[in-house]
Specification:
This protein is mainly alpha-helical and 57 residues long. It has one domain (2-56). Helix content is 79%, strand content 0%. The mean pLDDT is 78. Residues 1-26 are annotated as: Disordered.
Length: 57
């Protein structure tokens, strides 16, 4: 889902500006932590990459 959002500049900007809770950034942070807890390293790295990409905009 976040791959689609990050791949489209309009959707990415909308996700960053969305004031609902939790935000896309908070969701990715939560996903990253959950993946870390269950030792899914490659998926955790992908979540970190997406989080970094979302924050760079």
């Amino acid at each position: 889902m976040y791959g689609v959002i990050l791949g489209d500049s309009k959707r990415r900007q909308k996700a960053k500006e969305d004031k609902r809770t939790p935000t896309a950034e908070q969701n990715l942070e939560n996903i990253k932590e959950m993946l870390k807890e269950v030792n899914l390293d490659s998926e955790q790295k992908e979540a970190e990459r997406m989080l970094k990409e979302l924050r760079e905009e």
